[in-house]
């Protein structure tokens, strides 16, 4: 882990203001982008497709959350309308081609793929839409990547079995994967079990921030374990069937910096890393949970059910590759207050968040901007995780009120996004030059889309979704810049010499 004191010297201009030139500190750099390097963009089914054609009983956990608590979703927007991709995918695919994407990642919506989850009866109407969508993407010269779950756990399985608390759901997920592979294996070769498998249970069961708002650390760990087990079982299935391609997972490890080099701060960062990063990284890549994690869970009485047989499946079926979502750094310090004896165990027992004075911020999202996270994560995967193949699966900047940047031709001039991508891509390319097994960079997101709760507040896309004009699509300035990046295979940017 890098030491935060070094970063304190870095006083950078806020991302949304025009860049200042620091005499003698900023210079123009040019880096070649290798021919086989992915330049793609991502999204997910629930954040784009909308409910058009959805049948009764096909709600996902997210749909239930939205139905139960619409008021917490910004301006009431959510998965119901999303970007209406299901009816407008041809327009979006044409824009993918225009943007010059090499790859596009989305998910299949598990909750809509079946009319009966227990019997595994496929919804032919929905499945046929995916046939057409994937064919169109491929015909546009873009390679599709598919995630089997991007938070779209069927609501029925959530309500009937407690979702990922149940081993039955692990089995149903494997049967779902089997049907999806059978149907699409000739159209897709790069598969991912989960997008950010830690997120739903952390928000619902650890922090009680999302519906149905429970606090139960044991349930959190049970979900972690069952998603890890499900990944291993799907990897095994894919290999047994002999399909061409690979199965990975998309993780969101938070690059965690201690406030200082003092042992108590370093310890806080290591514990944070254990509970939020290594809990998935280690079993998926190395085939085993960190023994320190298992021991701490035991010490704190966090009971989760696992068997030797399950651990052996995890050991023998590690993933082929990782997608890594990287948005902002995480900074922690040693806790300054004693844990109240009546508060159940939570990993925050070991840390408190730390805000770096002078940090650069994306104020719309409240996230620090620190492109070095990519390089630091790359070196970690190289040195600690056997240099497994990976790519930046999500990186991006959600900005509020983007319409204020519209020019006379109606185009949003999102220079801040171009700057953001440039700086993050630069770190990705530096890492690759330094020996990281990094296959590429994918932007979140291709079009603006709905976020959990923030809905359409923060816009992420290369393509605007104009809610005032029936969700009309319009390329932003960044789309044209991205295309030129692809055509020239060269990144030129003015950057702080410190990042050399
Ligand atoms: C990632 C998720 O965590 O971050 C996406 O995979 C999400 O689903 C993205 O949209 C950006 O976060 P947010 O909360 O601003 O939408």
Automatic annotation (TrEMBL):
Q: Which Gene3D superfamilies match?
A: Glycosidases
Any Gene Ontology CC annotation: cytosol
Q: Name one Pfam family in it.
A: Glyco_hydro_1
For this protein, the record's InterPro entries field holds: GH, Glyco_hydro_1
The entry's keywords: Glycosidase, Hydrolase
What's the protein name? 6-phospho-beta-glucosidase gmuD
Q: Which organism is it from?
A: Cronobacter turicensis (strain DSM 18703 / CCUG 55852 / LMG 23827 / z3032)
- The EC number(s) attached to this protein equal 3.2.1.21, 3.2.1.85
């Amino acid at each position: 882990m890098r030491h935060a004191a070094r970063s304190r010297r870095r006083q950078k201009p806020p991302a949304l203001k025009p860049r200042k030139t620091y005499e003698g500190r900023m210079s123009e750099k040019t880096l070649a982008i290798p021919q086989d390097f992915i330049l793609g963009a991502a999204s997910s089914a629930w954040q784009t497709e909308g409910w058009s054609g959805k049948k009764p009983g096909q709600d996902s956990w997210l749909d239930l959350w939205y139905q139960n608590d619409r008021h917490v979703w910004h301006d009431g927007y959510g998965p119901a309308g999303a970007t209406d991709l299901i009816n407008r995918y041809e327009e979006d695919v044409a824009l993918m081609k225009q943007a010059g994407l090499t790859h596009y990642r989305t998910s299949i919506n598990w909750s809509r793929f079946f009319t009966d989850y227990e019997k595994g009866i496929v919804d032919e109407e929905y499945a046929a839409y995916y046939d057409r969508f994937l064919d169109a993407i491929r015909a546009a010269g873009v390679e599709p990547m598919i995630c089997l779950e991007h938070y779209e756990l069927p609501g029925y399985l959530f309500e009937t079995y407690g979702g990922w608390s149940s081993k039955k759901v692990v089995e149903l997920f494997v049967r779902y994967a089997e049907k999806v592979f059978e149907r699409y294996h000739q159209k897709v070769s790069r598969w991912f079990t989960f997008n950010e498998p830690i997120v739903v249970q952390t928000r619902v069961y650890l922090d009680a921030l999302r519906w149905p708002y429970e606090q139960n650390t044991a349930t959190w760990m049970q979900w972690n374990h069952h998603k890890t087990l499900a990944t291993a079982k799907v990897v095994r299935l894919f290999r047994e069937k002999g399909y061409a391609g690979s199965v990975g997972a998309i993780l969101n490890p938070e690059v965690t910096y201690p406030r200082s080099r003092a042992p108590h701060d370093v310890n806080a960062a290591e514990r944070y890393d254990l509970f939020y990063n290594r809990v998935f990284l280690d079993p998926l890549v190395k085939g085993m949970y960190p023994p320190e994690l298992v021991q701490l869970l035991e010490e704190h009485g966090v009971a989760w059910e696992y068997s030797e047989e399950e651990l052996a499946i995890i050991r023998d079926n590690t993933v082929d590759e990782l997608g890594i979502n990287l948005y902002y750094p995480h900074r922690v310090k040693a806790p300054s207050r004693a844990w109240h004896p009546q508060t159940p165990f939570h990993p925050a027992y070991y840390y408190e968040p730390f805000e770096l004075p002078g940090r650069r911020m994306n104020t719309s999202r409240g996230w620090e901007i620190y492109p070095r996270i990519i390089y630091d994560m790359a070196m970690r995967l190289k040195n600690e995780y056997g240099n497994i193949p990976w790519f930046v699966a999500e990186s991006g900047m959600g900005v509020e009120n983007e319409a204020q940047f519209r020019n006379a031709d109606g185009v949003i001039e999102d220079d801040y996004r171009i700057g953001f991508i440039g700086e993050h891509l630069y770190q990705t390319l530096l890492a690759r030059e330094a020996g990281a097994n990094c296959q590429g960079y994918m932007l979140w997101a291709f079009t603006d889309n709905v976020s959990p709760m923030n809905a359409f507040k923060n816009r992420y896309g290369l393509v605007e979704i104009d809610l005032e004009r029936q969700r009309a699509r319009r390329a932003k300035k960044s789309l044209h810049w991205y295309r030129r990046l692809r055509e020239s295979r060269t990144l030129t940017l003015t950057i702080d010499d410190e990042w050399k």
